[in-house]
Specification:
Blueprint (H helix, E strand, L loop, with lengths): L1 H32 L12 E4 L2 E4 L14 H38 L5 H24 L3 H15 L3 H9 L1 H13 L15 H14 L4
Helix pairs in contact: 2-3, 2-4, 2-7, 5-6
């Protein structure tokens, strides 16, 4: 009878403790083994802020649209017009500048007046043959931009160029014609001032087509 009583006490008191111990150990082991699979870890970017590691994420771009004001639309239209004009005329200005610079170099070695005149006339034919057709299709605005760019490429305004090659009378005549078209053959080229926008676009063209600016 005493043996049965002791056995009953053992089952009633010791067995629950044993089960609790097993469950605790089992839970401990489970906690140690969870998260060891290849798909259990998620890598993410993080930043350290005041000693705390915080997950960092890059949000998608948000585009905000609004109606442009009249001033913005006008400025954008002017920029687009100027940019188109530079893209159209700069190749001609580069070519004309190369020809005129070459002529200047050759004329510096020709001292005879008649020989200089013959040389200028021969190169004038080449210039007319190469540029007459495309330049007659330019608008007045594009022509103004072209004169600016020729000045940029040669260091001389168009009045000085015409006067050098065709004489002062021809230069004054072309200056008068330019005046009627609200232009000026003597206009300078100031890349750091009034012509800063043209210069930016020229450099853009040079980068795009691999020209040496």
């Amino acid at each position: 009878m005493m043996r049965l009583l002791n056995r009953h006490i053992l089952v009633k008191r010791v067995l629950p403790f044993f089960i609790l111990l097993l469950s605790t150990r089992s839970g401990h082991l489970l906690a140690q083994t969870v998260g060891t699979g290849v798909n259990d870890t998620i890598l993410t970017a993080a930043v350290i802020y005041n000693g705390d590691t915080i997950e960092a994420k890059t949000l998608d771009a948000v585009f905000v649209y609004a109606r442009m004001s009249a001033d913005v639309l006008s400025a954008n239209a002017k920029w687009t017009r100027l940019r188109n004009a530079v893209y159209v005329t700069y190749p001609y200005a580069r070519r004309a500048g190369a020809v005129l610079n070459d002529m200047n170099a050759k004329l510096s070695n020709i001292t005879d007046r008649m020989a200089r005149k013959d040389y200028i006339k021969s190169r004038e034919k080449d210039l007319k043959r190469e540029f007459t057709d495309p330049l007659t299709n330019l608008s007045i605005y594009q022509g103004k931009v072209l004169m600016k760019l020729i000045n940029r490429e040669t260091g001389n305004n168009c009045y000085e160029i015409i006067k050098e090659y065709k004489g002062g009378l021809a230069a004054r005549f072309y200056q008068t014609v330019a005046f009627f078209f609200n232009s000026n053959l003597k206009q300078p080229y100031d890349k750091g001032g009034d012509d800063a926008d043209i210069e930016k676009i020229v450099l853009e063209v040079c980068r795009m087509y691999g020209f040496k600016g």
